[in-house]
Design a protein that fits this description.
about 120 residues; mainly alpha; Ferritin; elongated
């Protein structure tokens, strides 16, 4: 029969003893950088979508996407900084503009914008 006292002692020590946290390895850092860069790019694309459509439902969906991307960016940035990982250069947000000012040769259709979501 196993030693119950020793088992209990090991369990209690596992809650008390904190092992030093190992740093992220290069693959984890690269994944964080890639994820953060994608979030920033998708936020910019969604902002461009807001600037390109007058469809209220589509604009609402893009606004929700931008809100989600910003929230995720804040979370991953906080995590990376807490781990001592520098933040890569990121795409900057787009200023708001009037969708009717976008030239037709550049403007995506509402279907193309909806598919990008």
């Amino acid at each position: 029969m196993p030693d119950v006292g020793k088992a209990l002692k090991n369990i209690i020590q596992s809650f008390v003893d904190e092992e030093p946290k190992s740093p992220l390895h290069v693959g984890e850092v690269m994944s964080c950088w890639s994820y953060l860069s994608e979030l920033a790019d998708e936020q910019v694309h969604s902002e461009a979508g807001i600037n390109s459509t007058t469809d209220l439902e589509l604009r609402k969906a893009f606004h929700e996407a931008v809100k989600m991307f910003k929230s995720q960016k804040e979370r991953i940035i906080a995590f990376m900084l807490s781990e001592g990982v520098p933040i890569p250069p990121l795409s900057e947000s787009k200023p708001q503009s009037n969708p009717s000012d976008v030239p037709l040769g550049v403007k995506l259709t509402d279907d193309e914008l909806a598919n990008s979501l």
